[in-house]
Amino acid sequence: MELATLHGYWNGMPLCFGGDFNDIRYMVERRGCRRASNSMKFFDDLCNELDLVYLPLSGAKYTWSRPPNKKRKIDRFLFSSDWEDHFPNINFKRLARPFSDHFPIELCSKDSDWGTAGECFSKKLHALKEKLKVWNRDVFGNIDRAIDLALTKMRELDELDDERGLTEGEEYILVTAKMDFDVAHRRQSIMMRKNSRIRYFRDGDRKTKHFHRVVRGHKAFNNINNLRINGR
């Protein structure tokens, strides 16, 4: 059902779903399987209904195993036909398994060289850093400046209201300014709480005076309301 929900939400876009689906589609995907279960039929019907393309596993039969002899192919990639148009030469292969019951699986393009996993991660972090800079400048912005602008606008409109009253448009601007102030004030409070935690973890254990002051503050709330001895 989650697969159908995601497919419906992103319908019309190239889609690729990958991971542990916790079920198989065909009997050959489980060692010793002799009949198709209802869950297998439901999974297969769902994939056909959503028109999801099945990508075979290269160089291996199963993606999960557990002693003594349990083996299944429950990790897979399913994608829409238009997604294959963007990546026509793709390969699905099984990697070495150090710990888990599941084998790591990799989806890669035969023609494209995206670099090593570390290089790809580094590129993504760099791209994320640039996006965060833009977001901080254009969306989050300078909190103190946003608060000052909202307060200035409210003060001007309140003074204008004392003189002649406000028009409908000016009343809307006043409400908007109050909302802007509330949002900026909330953000400022969040930042102050985070900064206080950072200072505590950074300086708390290094400053003995600060540490003992915190302990005494906690100790003031520690008390014993009553004692029971031999049930009395």
Give a verbal description of the structure.
The chain has seven helices and seven strands; from the N terminus they run αβαββββαββαααα. It has 232 residues and is an alpha+beta fold. It has a three-stranded antiparallel beta sheet with strand order 1-5-2. A hairpin with a 3-residue loop joins strand 3 (64-66) and strand 4. Helix 5 (143-164) runs antiparallel to helix 6 (168-203). The longest helix has 36 residues, at 168-203.
SSE diagram, text form:
Layout: H1 2-9, E1 16-20, H2 38-49, E2 52-54, E3 64-66, E4 70-72, E5 75-80, H3 81-86, E6 90-94, E7 105-109, H4 117-140, H5 143-164, H6 168-203, H7 208-219
Antiparallel strand pairs: 1-5, 2-5, 3-4, 6-7
Helix pairs in contact: 5-6
Structure in a nutshell:
The chain is of the alpha+beta class and 232 residues long. The protein has seven helices and seven strands, in the order αβαββββαββαααα.
Summary tags:
232 residues, two-stranded antiparallel sheet, 7 strands, 52% helix, 13% strand
| Distance between the first and last residues' Cα | 58 Å
User: Would you tell me the overall average pLDDT?
Assistant: 77
Listing every helix as H and every strand as E from the N terminus to the C terminus, the arrangement reads: HEHEEEEHEEHHHH
Quantity of strands, as a count: 7
Class computed from helices, strands and strand pairing? alpha+beta
What is the overall shape? Answer: extended
Give the helix tally.
7
* Radius of gyration of CA atoms, rounded to a whole number: 30 Å
Strand order of the largest sheet: 1-5-2
